[in-house]
């Protein structure tokens, strides 16, 4: 070249087109599984639903099951977090609101459907197990921090998580009315008051 520098291919930007295509395919997979269930999911529909060429699907995920598993894990990441503002009541109420919102998304419906059938492939069962483990671990970290700071008496974090999240699933899945902050505040208030009242004082 005239400036003496050798020709080089243009630098690939982080992400780029392939990252966008992969994101489109994963989002389409979640919506299709939410619509048809894992058993009814048709690999051949993904490209059309995502608006990409079918070779993009086959090249990135030669195996149908690998695509389903990655979609489940990818879209579960945000549902496993619980903030720590120092106010356990507020943080748990915010968690319930986020959980309710997540259950109303295509991914939330996918999880609900996937958890129902008893017969899932080992790979899908493992992915669902990882998702649930992430949520349990996040709850344990937040509850342990609250116990350490004296916000809560010693408590089984798994039990606490089940007690506060059960009503959310019931309200959202029944679809009778929206889940509100008032619902979240009431649930957390009743459960925490019960824990404090039934824990023997030192």
Automatic annotation (TrEMBL):
DNA-binding annotation, residue ranges on this chain: 42-61
Annotated GO MF terms: DNA-binding transcription factor activity; transcription cis-regulatory region binding
PROSITE patterns: HTH_TETR_2
Pfam families per UniProt: TetR_C_11, TetR_N
Keyword list, A-Z: DNA-binding, Transcription, Transcription regulation
Chain ranges of the HTH tetR-type domain: 19-79
Domain of life: Bacteria
Protein name per Swiss-Prot or TrEMBL: TetR family transcriptional regulator
Annotated organism of origin: Streptomyces marincola
């Amino acid at each position: 070249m005239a400036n003496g520098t050798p020709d080089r291919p243009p630098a690939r930007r982080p992400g780029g087109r392939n990252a966008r295509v992969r994101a489109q395919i994963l989002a389409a997979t979640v919506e299709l599984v939410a619509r048809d269930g894992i058993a009814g999911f048709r690999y051949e529909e993904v490209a059309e639903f995502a608006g990409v060429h079918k070779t993009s699907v086959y090249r990135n995920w030669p195996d149908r099951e690998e695509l389903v598993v990655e979609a489940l894990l990818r879209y579960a990441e945000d549902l496993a977090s619980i903030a720590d503002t120092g106010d356990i009541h507020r943080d748990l109420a915010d968690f319930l609101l986020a959980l309710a919102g997540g259950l109303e998304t295509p991914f939330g419906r996918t999880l609900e459907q996937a958890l129902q059938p008893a017969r899932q492939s080992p790979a899908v069962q493992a992915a669902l197990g990882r998702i649930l483990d992430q949520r349990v671990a996040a709850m344990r970290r937040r509850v342990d921090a609250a116990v350490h700071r004296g916000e809560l008496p010693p408590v089984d974090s798994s039990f606490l998580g089940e007690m506060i999240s059960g009503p959310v699933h019931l309200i959202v899945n029944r679809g009778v009315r929206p889940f509100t902050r008032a619902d979240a505040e009431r649930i957390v208030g009743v459960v925490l008051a019960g824990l404090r009242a039934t824990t023997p004082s030192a």
